UniProtKB/TrEMBL annotation:
The keyword Cell membrane applies. GO terms for biological process: protein transport. Pfam families: MotA_ExbB. GO terms for cellular component: plasma membrane. Its main location: membrane. Residues 67-187 form the MotA/TolQ/ExbB proton channel domain. It is a multi-pass membrane protein. It is found in: Cell membrane; Membrane. InterPro entries: ExbB/TolQ_transport (IPR050790), MotA_ExbB_proton_chnl (IPR002898). Keywords: Cell membrane, Membrane, Protein transport, Transmembrane, Transmembrane helix, Transport. This is MotA/TolQ/ExbB proton channel family protein. The chain crosses the membrane at residues 12-31, 106-130, 150-170. Belongs to the exbB/tolQ family.
């Protein structure tokens, strides 16, 4: 392996650096984009129960805001509770843009690595080929096996660039898809909270209290 790195020449240094950065980004995003960290199970229902029971003191809301991206989105809606529905929705959308931006942190860098890796590898190969042909110009063709070995060494950079780029591209697409799924889930939770605050939806924990009430029959 060390011999291949030496054979690739100086372009291998930035290529290996890109590989290390890509690996660090992938590990960090895998940790940060865990489901329990983004959309904790049961959080939406718990917040709807708060809203239905009126337990919305500033301490609860601030704790919710720091809980998770979903918590930040729901807290933004609770901050403007009692306002017109469209105003609350605008606040949710504005907060949602900030939440998505935080979830997509470093993904642009990962996408850049996926695009730049093969190009940098190709540059290393071109530089190696130029050096080899300049050597032929000065000393002649010489041994054909040596010429083939030189071409093989020059291609090391291209192979390295592709080895780095393919996993980086796959990880980039994977994280984009996961974030898109989280966005849909958070939109659904925000809509349910809006319906609860409008009185259109009764949370499951609150519904049993009203279950014993006599139903109202329509007058014929």
């Amino acid at each position: 392996m060390l011999e291949l790195v030496k054979a690739g020449g100086w372009p291998m240094v930035p290529l290996l650096l890109l590989g290390v950065i890509a690996l660090a980004i992938v590990l960090e995003r895998l940790w940060s984009l865990r489901r329990n960290e983004v959309t904790p199970p049961g959080l939406g229902e718990e917040v709807r129960n708060w809203a239905a029971r009126g337990k919305l003191d500033p301490t609860h809301i601030e704790s919710l805001r720091r809980n998770s991206p979903l918590g930040a989105l729901l807290a933004a809606a609770l901050d403007v509770r009692g306002r017109p529905r469209e105003l609350i929705r605008e606040r949710i959308e504005d907060t949602g843009r900030h939440v998505v931006h935080r979830m997509e942190r470093y993904l642009n860098a990962l996408g850049t690595i996926a695009s730049a890796g093969p190009l940098l590898g190709l540059l290393g190969t071109v530089v190696g080929m130029i050096q080899m042909f300049l050597g032929i110009l000065d000393h002649g063709v010489g041994d054909v096996n040596q010429l083939a070995g030189g071409i093989g060494k020059a291609l090391v950079c291209t192979a390295t660039g592709m080895i780095i780029a393919v996993p980086a591209l796959m990880a980039h697409r994977f994280f984009k898809g996961r974030i898109a799924g989280y966005i849909i889930e958070m939109e659904q939770e925000a809509t349910l909270l809006l319906d609860t605050m409008d009185g259109r939806l009764v949370p499951a924990a609150v519904a049993p209290a009203a279950a014993g009430a006599k139903p109202v029959t329509a007058k014929g």
